[in-house]
Amino acid sequence: MTNITLRRHLTDKGHDPDLIFLLEDIASACRSTAYEVRNGPLKGNLGLTDSTNVQGEDQKPLDIIANDIFVETCANSPRLAALVSEEIEEVVWLKEPEEGDYLLFFDPLDGSSNLDTNLSVGTIFSIMRVTKDGDRNVLKKGSDQIVAGYALYGPATMLVLAHGHGVQSFTLHQGSGIFRLTHPSLTIKQDTPEFAINASRQRFWDAPIQQYVDECLQGKEGPRGKDFNMRWVASMVAEVHRILMRGGVFLYPLDDANRAKGGRLRLLYEVAPMAMVIEAAGGAGSTGTERILDLLPSEPHQRVATILGSKSEVDYIVDLHTK
Ligand code: AFP
């Protein structure tokens, strides 16, 4: 078992102690969330609450529990000025913002519609900085992120981080509760014949996506000259982690049914952090026409078209959009 803990790794990389403090709070919140997810069925925390979130989506008890864990655990981080959560409509200001303070964006429990079927779910998070005293603007480009990552509550509980030094994965040691470095440098295979999309939405797709998927389905007899495989877990964290581990591409494009809302997935606390992780591992993230990390959000819960994964495959899909 590796002896490098999360704290040792972050310290070795020379991070600001307050950032290490915040990242350890996030790790603690993920550890507690993993515990609640594992024990959900025993505590009667499955099914639905009678409330909906800011997105108008049904809230699961564990959505609320995970959100409360993050707010309570991270609120005592010394330089954390604000929280933006999928489960909270307004920005939660914890202190008067000062230059260099941190902003935390998170989806506390992504994929929670899979909880009742005991499939993997996760937490997605992103950290940015306040650029000047008193600045309450949280609408920043993904390229301004200083840390992005996710926790995957699967057979193992893993914490994956991009923090300016490639991509690492830490695995939670169930006995000690310590996250230990198990993957020191994750990189995405440049091309692999696996794509992830909700194929039940095919009738809503725009022409480039129709063409891309159709070519994949034609296999080696078709224009791609090779057979493809398809996966759809309906849990973005699980899909992205699979792509990080063995390559592939994830698509949740704009379509006729979600265009009015701007897409399905949220930019600030789902898509931008995942795009940072994927790019740091050598992959690419695009809306089909724009690099995700270049997008300037117009509101905290903005949705966006999402194509993430192996760079050659994302580039191929972007080319289809330009033709
Ligand atoms: P939930 O958090 O409501 O389960 O949504 C999960 C998600 O945001 C993302 O993790 C999945 O990739 C995507 O939605 C699944 O969307 P579909 O349910 O339309 O397949």
From TrEMBL:
Keywords: Carbohydrate metabolism, Cytoplasm, Hydrolase, Magnesium, Metal-binding. Its cofactor is Mg(2+). GO terms for biological process: fructose 1,6-bisphosphate metabolic process; fructose 6-phosphate metabolic process; fructose metabolic process; gluconeogenesis; sucrose biosynthetic process. Mg(2+) 2 binds at residues 107, 110, 270. Mg(2+) 1 binds at residues 86, 107, 109. It catalyses: beta-D-fructose 1,6-bisphosphate + H2O = beta-D-fructose 6-phosphate + phosphate. It is an enzyme of class 3 (hydrolase). Homotetramer. NCBIfam families: PRK09293.1-3 (NF006779). This is Fructose-1,6-bisphosphatase class 1. The lineage of its organism: Bacteria, Pseudomonadati, Pseudomonadota, Alphaproteobacteria, Rhodobacterales.
